[in-house]
């Protein structure tokens, strides 16, 4: 079995259809692509009384489900791709054990998501799948991989699960709230793993730590998605400050993500304004 | 078969075929039970991937749909017959209801509460099911629970609306009142 | 109530544990090192395979089992220093080259159309051999001196039995015609042949010896 499995080789059954980057970026309907922007005000908060709320929640949860599959695959590949050892492209034994533990957690998250999909009336594979999460898990530097996946993406998962838990709570959906609550607990553990390993492995290598944190910033900004995640009242996904700090983020690091999200939002709004003006 | 007009006739942002939508809509209108000379207009905003839909008027029956609502969720920009049937079937059943005296008291669509809207959709989509279009029943049940509460009373009301025929606006209002009374405040 | 000062036997009448065992500390450490090596190779392969398997139920089972074998590796890793092996890496080795060849064959299937081979190698060959070697160890070690290893063996065996059953049921659900039967059998035979050459997961003597000393025939 080869090391580093490219995203296009991820194995899926016939229910799943992959959305390529080309598909995504060639869609002229996105802001700035010439499509209509009337009635669009940028991302809006997902609240139970929003007209499309149940379908938006279903689509988001399906995205989370395929994200869980990819997180499982990514953690599994980290078990396989790196040997135990002290060298640059090797990892400590205990790190591999953590990744195996994450495999089990992500497998459970898939199981939870499948049951939740059934509850929400969503068919598996109903929506197209993007492989961006797994792509971050292909970094050949294990530290960058862990930082990108466990701190940036699993950190986003903390924000998403917390937001959806609150959504379930206010919608009175006991199943959604229950599932999100449990998955949130695991994500805090995964982010903490990422924070701990980043600190330990790069203890004597500040350059590598900075590269890893820069990679995290890139991923964090990418996943702020034009203001999709932030601390504003109307942010669709709220930055879960308390849980992030439990997971090893410093106050300043959360501030930084918040700033990145604001930047991403401002850029998104500028694109929208430009599209409206043209 | 109903006289159907789809605008635009050709699409630049999506790969939709207007003639195919016309053909599908004609068949749907027949199954819904609209008179053969009914005029139906479908105005598609192809420039947005969003999925809002609306019954704009009854004479002629005019549906306004955003492109995303006719799209295949797995294949962006591709037309999905299932999506077209899902949207057009539901809206044409609502149009048919509005043309009936039993719905004379129904407020305009814009004035419907989310609960009324969802109850009406349930009644319409249940009939789509019996027309053989196999809509996503569990998805509709989830919508209904979100609007009417996660309660046994709401589930029973859903089943009743889904399986019903010949309801009036008063029946839908009664179902809404019933679920409202059983609703436990969230929190 | 009984008199608390009255002497009682240190081993209660129902406690039949005995001192003698088949393995001394060195031999136990050797075996535990091999166990750790094989558990590591197994959890790594299961983790790597998750992404290559299209069947959703198999994918999720592999992810779950991956952790269990990693946990076994950790148990053995923690046991090694208790067996006077402070450099745990020194004994984290395969029993012989033949066993490496066997593990290479087990982890060789990669394509999305090779789920059957992946499962057969692990659940019809490797795990049954692990169950056999672990059971042999459990039944033959000193019940007093090696109690910590026995405790771990019991935890590990419980997982192995459960995982073997999961894997076997997945295999049975994937085998739907004669061609599948042949595919499974061919791969099983190949892997079985290789592990026989290796002598088992701990090398020759993994499950003891069944040779019986027969007295030489006395001739007049």
What does this structure look like?
Chain A has 278 residues and is mostly helical. Chain A contains 9 helices and 4 strands. Chain A has a two-stranded parallel sheet. In chain A, strands 3-4 form a two-stranded parallel ribbon. The N and C termini of chain A lie far apart (52 Å). The mean pLDDT of chain A is 89. With 187 residues, chain B is α/β, with parallel strands linked by helices. Chain B has 2 domains: 3-98, 2-Layer Sandwich (Zincin-like), CATH 3.30.2010; 104-182, no CATH class. Chain B has 6 helices and 6 strands, in the order E-H-E-E-E-E-E-H-H-H-H-H. Chain B has a 4-stranded mixed beta sheet, with helices on one face. Chain B is globular and about 50 Å long. Chain C has 220 residues and is mostly helical. Helix content of chain C is 65%, strand content 0%. Chain C is globular, with a radius of gyration of 21 Å. Chains in contact: A-B, A-C. The interface between A and C is medium-sized, with 34 and 35 residues.
List strands and helices in order, with pairings.
The complex is a heterotrimer of chains A (278), B (187) and C (220).
Chain A: H1 21-25, H2 53-81, E1 83-84, E2 90-91, H3 93-120, H4 132-136, H5 142-171, H6 174-201, H7 206-222, E3 229-230, E4 237-238, H8 241-246, H9 251-277
Parallel strand pairs in A: 1-2, 3-4
Helix pairs in contact in A: 2-3, 2-5, 3-6, 5-6, 5-7, 7-9
Chain B: E1 3-7, H1 18-32, E2 39-45, E3 53-58, E4 61-66, E5 71-72, E6 75-79, H2 81-98, H3 114-133, H4 137-148, H5 152-162, H6 169-182
Chain C: H1 25-50, H2 56-82, H3 88-91, H4 97-107, H5 115-140, H6 147-174, H7 178-198
Helix pairs in contact in C: 1-2, 2-6, 4-7, 5-6, 5-7
Name a few traits of the molecule.
heterotrimer, A: 278 residues, mainly alpha, Ferritin, two-stranded parallel sheet, 4 strands, C: 220 residues, 65% helix, 0% strand, globular
